[in-house]
Amino acid sequence: MANSSGSVTNQAIQVLQGPYITNTYGGGIQCQGPTRNFTPYVTGSASASKPYEPYYMDPVYDVTDNFGAFDADGNNIGDGILDNPGDVSFYKRTRTGQKDNYSLGVGFSMTWSTPTDKKLQDLCKRAATTQIELTSQLVANKRLDFEIARLKNCGELKLKGIQFHPKSPYYKVCADVVVNNPPGHGHPHVHAIPSVSRQTSTPESPLSSRAEDLGAPLETK
């Protein structure tokens, strides 16, 4: 009669393919591109017996049979029955053959998925490019509207003499706005400065022959 024992371990790697990568550009435009799936995996198993016993002591029994019968000369001989049944003569060290089993598997799986209709892909890419340009133009228009409104408001405030303090963090909001033609002034404009005529000669004092015009009489000492 023969006995056999063993174990079988089945391991499998399952590859799940996800959907195509979808890019959305606004305006209801969605484009799907090729997809590459890279799946690394590591598998392993271990089996061991507890407690681990590399050796065991195997008893060796006493199998001597020297007594129980006699020969023709009257000497003791064996009679086929053990003289000391069940007695252990000694123990011998015997390997059990017990082992720990380990296994390790490393690998990867990869799939490549590509749409089959290239024409639809090209049309979707063109629509995406157009949508991006349209969005960029709308952003530029909003920026222009903002700058024109800032120019108008800052210019009107500067005409009224209103502005942020130079140390204010908001001073730079209107720092680049210049008012060139304030009301009542042309640019460039010139102011006429009237010239002042200079007298080149000092008018002479009128001569008088009258004695009273000479002042008080002179006194001599």
Structure description:
There is one protein chain. The protein is of the alpha+beta class and 221 residues long. Among the domains are: 11-34 and 115-174, no CATH class; 49-99, no CATH class. 19% of the residues lie in helices and 25% in strands. It is built from one helix and eight strands; from the N terminus they run ββββββββα. The chain has one helix at residues 118-159, and strands spanning 21-24, 30-33, 35-47, 55-61, 68-70, 76-78, 88-95, 101-113. The protein has a two-stranded antiparallel sheet. Strands 3-8 form a two-stranded antiparallel ribbon. Strands 4-7 form a two-stranded antiparallel ribbon. β5 and β6 form a beta hairpin. The longest helix has 42 residues, at 118-159. The chain is elongated and about 210 Å long. The N and C termini lie far apart (182 Å). The model has no long low-confidence stretch (mean pLDDT 80).
